[in-house]
């Protein structure tokens, strides 16, 4: 019973006894209320599954606790507390915190917190404005649509949804045993009185009914030429299709997204798509599932000659950033996502970007670029062909060994970059500390598939040269630092491609396999020799190619 974004355990001592920490409990309740609600189990230690054997909690203390929490948490609703008994005879308390639908929950001293994964984070400044903004869309899914009942919904759409759920097989046998109407109620498409919700109309309604939604699911697909001029456009603005049918139709008509090239692989050739099918589907489903449905904007899919851009209304949910998206678990439209998982459109919660990173790493492609403007979210995937030798090596590894998803992502990054520092690899994997690399690399290092040099933050990683030999590749990677002549050439080429670059940008692009200080000294040496020109003050200095290198 691990803690999640909707579930937390608290020790008995936090709530009862001589020195309870009621302010901490109130903060947790505020966190859950500002997210999607959740459960708080009081009387179970963090690392335990059950309360202490024989633990007893008097009912009068439970009543007093709820009363005290109510005075410390503003705009927080706690459902009737449940005093439960575990198999070992120990008692514990379950508090169910309802989501704060229209207002922001705070502690009694005016502080606001929100839930990110299994942690409570303070909300201030711009994030507070974002939290207020998100409250308008939090319960869009389950609001009732006036004058639309079960009898008004097309029978064919109801049958389609029920058949997709049963065919996907992603829900329990208990859910699969429900009748069609019970399924609709279970997934919040209908209320218990037979009225359709916004989510119900989105999935089951007629085009006219969907058009009545404040903002439904509308998509535009635009193809650009090499000069980024529009050459073709497909639109889905008539509310004719439910989400599953729309996704299938988009994938069928967006032929440019299915382009592939053949890469020589020794005596054979390997077909590689510009955008792996699993990545493409996952990105589109994420755009559908996480968009803000209370703003008037469409999902835009831009197919350029060198990249794919998918833009959806609404930025990332509060607490999620482009540099934490791989690990953060927070849903904007939880009921919609539940239907996507039940119908097989997407995998389980929190698996989307893991899958995207794995597939791109497996095919030696760059990781996605995520740009959050606050009002919209743009995800960019490059179409560039992978290096043939790198792809051949990764194919060999996948065929000879069994790896976890984390290990495959790490292997893909090491195969592409040959040599990475612990800091650079942690940054690529969105890990805040290099110590967290262990689950990604420990088994690979133990099996001598990955070699290391150095210690702690000064550690460097590279794939074993024996793997290249086994894959019949001539290249032999090394943990030795990059030759100074090659490093200088790499810097010059980078600055030639990116004029007026800051030093930090140069280091970020060319120094993943070389110490930052080494790259900095090389840049200073190139300036001293006249091969690079430096302009601007100390804080705004930019570097460009000198005329002698033009």
From TrEMBL:
The keyword Membrane does not apply. GO terms for molecular function: helicase activity. It holds the Pfam family HATPase_c_4. Keywords: ATP-binding, Helicase, Hydrolase, Nucleotide-binding. Residues 14-123 form the Schlafen AlbA-2 domain. The keyword 4Fe-4S does not apply. This is ATP-dependent DNA helicase RecG. It comes from Hymenobacter psychrophilus.
